[in-house]
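Priority: medium. Attachment 1 of 2:
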């Protein structure tokens, strides 16, 4: 009896561990995590893995049959996950999709947790869901990441977001631009988004632009499967004869519909937080029936408590240790893969600018770029590191031939090219590389780079001005004048920009246009009536 009692206590412990791990992961995800915060993201993955492990260990200890994840919604979730892996090849910025992969896997874990643990304890979990979401919503508005509920913005900002989402879907209707990539394409589709940022509030417009038609069809298939599951489970719940259980079932359905409706006015359903909130509720509805336990334990109901505990103890004695070791090993390997972005970010991070140019930092950057070769930021930092080395080499040119400086310059070019290969829509990389070419007096290379930047990021004012300056330096007067005319006609300009344009016109000999630009600059300084 001691062994069976210890088994029951162990099963209860793992059930509690699964629930606590899930809600802690959800709290971190809703309040603290934001894109690019790899440390908090990995903490979420660890908590979800712990919760998933507890979901597997609890039925094993209690002698119940472990649920096979082969329901129709789960199969469709696996297909969505596989599609996102395939979609990486068609993504415009692959690293953004790779950052979201672990959260989709967390969603698969969350669905299973809901189907196994939460469905058995729905009387406690469903009210806890309502209270938890309300509490975290209030906390996030004051202290945390509130953008997933209602990002701030006026009507023009909302219009720009809708316009951009429609334009991206028109360009990538089949595969989409990549899950999580849309906000990084703002300079391609909007004018001066750094000054007039768009707001993306409609989750489904976001998903349509990012996942394309194929991804949306899979998501609609999942929702259709859930509708069928809810209809069937409703009949079983009503057949159980307990009104309280029926009320809890309808409360879970109501929460699900509330989240789906909230996706129309907020980006929560397109964010990782929406996945981790939505899918366990779906799993809970999938596992709920009119009986006291989930359907996969029906054969055990005919057994007495003592017989069940004895069978569980026999099973534990026979397969307990290999099962625990196997599950723990697999989850540890998954966490190791999920830790790669965090490890590479720690390697590429520098606490003091004096570290740039040192041998140790160069080795760390090399290792980081090998771990995450598709991360453009690491190649950019490596180029910055090489530029620091290049400045040191120039100081030593008096005593050595300039071959080392030339070799470093070639490596810098290569690093910037790699960065732009993996993120061709980064204005910062274009501008930084352009300044390097300007310092090395490579005017043709600068103009060629800025023309490429203009093609990929036409909404950047700085890129257009830099291109104009390159045309002036090359003596291409007509191209420079056309660029200035386009800027003045279509871009909302301020006082310093009008001054720069006026100076460029003066350099080109267009005195009338220069005087007019200076006049516009003076008008920009006057307060509105």
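Attachment 2 of 2:
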């Amino acid at each position: 009896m001691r062994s069976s009692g210890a088994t029951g206590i162990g099963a209860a412990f793992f059930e509690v561990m699964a629930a606590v791990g899930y809600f802690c992961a959800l709290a971190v995800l809703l309040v603290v995590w934001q894109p690019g915060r790899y440390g908090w993201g990995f903490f979420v993955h660890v908590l979800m893995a712990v919760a998933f492990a507890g979901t597997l260990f609890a039925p094993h200890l209690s002698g119940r049959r472990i649920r096979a994840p082969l329901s129709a919604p789960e199969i469709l979730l696996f297909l969505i996950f596989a599609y996102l892996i395939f979609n990486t090849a068609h993504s415009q910025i692959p690293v953004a999709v790779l950052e979201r992969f672990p959260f989709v896997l967390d969603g698969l874990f969350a669905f299973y947790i809901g189907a196994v643990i939460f469905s058995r304890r729905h009387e406690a979990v469903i009210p806890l869901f309502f209270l938890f979401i309300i509490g975290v919503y209030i906390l996030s508005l004051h202290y945390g990441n509130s953008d997933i509920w209602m990002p701030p913005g006026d009507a023009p900002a909302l219009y720009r977001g809708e316009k951009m989402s429609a334009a991206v879907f028109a360009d990538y209707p089949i595969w989409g631009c990549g899950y999580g990539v849309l906000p990084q394409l703002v300079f391609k589709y909007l004018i001066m988004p750094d000054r007039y940022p768009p707001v993306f509030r409609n989750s489904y417009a976001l998903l349509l632009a990012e996942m394309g038609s194929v991804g949306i069809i899979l998501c609609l298939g999942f929702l259709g499967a859930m509708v069928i599951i809810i209809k069937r489970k409703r009949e079983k719940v009503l057949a159980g004869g307990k009104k309280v259980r029926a009320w809890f079932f309808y409360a879970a359905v109501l929460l699900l519909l509330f989240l789906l409706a909230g996706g129309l006015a907020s980006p929560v359903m397109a964010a990782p937080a929406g996945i981790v909130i939505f899918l366990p509720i779906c799993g809970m509805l999938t596992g709920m029936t009119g009986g006291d336990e989930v359907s996969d334990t029906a054969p055990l109901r005919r057994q007495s408590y003592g017989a069940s505990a004895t069978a569980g103890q026999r099973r534990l004695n026979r397969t307990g240790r290999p099962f625990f070791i196997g599950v723990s090993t697999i989850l540890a390997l998954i966490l190791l893969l999920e830790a790669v972005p965090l490890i590479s970010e720690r390697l590429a991070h520098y606490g003091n600018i004096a570290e740039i140019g040192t041998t140790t930092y160069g080795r760390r950057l090399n290792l980081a770029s090998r771990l995450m070769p598709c991360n453009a930021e690491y190649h950019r930092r490596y180029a910055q590191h090489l530029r620091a080395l290049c400045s040191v080499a120039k100081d030593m040119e008096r005593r050595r031939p300039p071959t080392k400086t030339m070799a470093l310059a070639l490596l810098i070019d290569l690093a910037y090219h790699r960065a732009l290969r993996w993120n061709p829509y980064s204005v910062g990389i274009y501008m930084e590389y352009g300044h390097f070419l300007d310092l090395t007096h490579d005017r043709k290379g600068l103009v060629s780079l800025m023309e490429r930047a203009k093609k990929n990021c036409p909404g950047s004012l700085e890129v257009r001005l830099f291109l104009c300056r390159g045309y002036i330096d090359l003596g291409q007067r007509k191209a420079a004048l056309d660029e200035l005319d386009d800027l003045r006609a279509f871009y909302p300009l301020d006082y310093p920009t009008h001054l720069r344009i006026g100076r460029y016109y003066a350099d080109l000999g267009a005195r009338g246009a220069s005087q007019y630009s200076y006049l516009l600059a003076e008008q920009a300084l006057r307060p509105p009536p």
